[in-house]
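Reopening this ticket.

The earlier resolution said the output was attached, but the attachment link was broken on my side. Pasting everything inline this time so it's all in one place.
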Amino acid sequence: MKKYTYSAKAEDNKDKWWIVDAEGKILGRLATRIASHIRGKHNPMYTPHVDTGDSVIVINAEKIVLTGRKLDQKNYYRHSGYIGSLKTITARKLLEKRPEDVIRFAVKGMLPKNRLGRQLFKKLKVYSGDKHPHEAQQPETLTL
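Inline output:
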């Protein structure tokens, strides 16, 4: 009788779609749950080096909550590569301009920094309103 540890393969994954309403949710707590589902850690056949996760749709991204004084103190940076071109934007301004990016940046920081992480990040779909074009996937509601 052989005893071995089960290691999932990519074709074993049956990709499920979940929908999350971000209205009134705290950003960090929401992002950790989303990253966990995208990574597949809720799944019994979770394997760290294989994509065993599900796709997640986030709606109402503009109604996310940041606690404390993070709206004014949290900064997002980007750099073009040229000297002196470091750009900074606060969380308040980013929520006004592109509210989807606040959730995307939070979840992306919680995924692996390699090929697998880039592949997993494509499973996240974020929308600022309550409409989304993924009705054909029949997403189930994920309660947090």
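Reporter confirms the inline version is readable. The CA atoms of residues 30 and 70 lie 16 Å apart. The chain has five helices and six strands.
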